[in-house]
Amino acid sequence: SKGRVGCAGVTSRQRCPSAAPLRVSMADAGLLPPELIALAVNVLNYAMFAGGLLIKMPQIVAILRSKTVKGMSEASLTTEFLACVSFCSYNLLMGHPFKTWGEMALIMVQCGVQMVLFWSLTEDKLAVMPRIAGAVAVASAVAGL
Length: 145
Fold this sequence. Notes:
By secondary structure, the protein is mostly helical.
């Protein structure tokens, strides 16, 4: 069948339901020069890094201005931070290029800043030892990679 891959022996009137349609990129078709495509990919990568820098920044600025963390949940901050650490650790171990996951590393740093701000500005009495133990455990696990 025309435009299908993996349909050996199938005539043009028969269907090949298991085969995917043939995909042709603009670079393969010669519509755009490879240099322009590489430039566009790099611009998108830098835009992702810029977006990663801006994700948590408004909330951090608001915390610093108001000097309060009222309404924030330590559990949600910790969960998000650990998710970011897990994602970054996985990509680092798999050897993926930093430009493919680096924006998450920037978000992870911002989540860490939010946690430190929460711990320092909360009006609730916090038990310090479990938080120190958790921070040391996470740091040790990441350092052991």
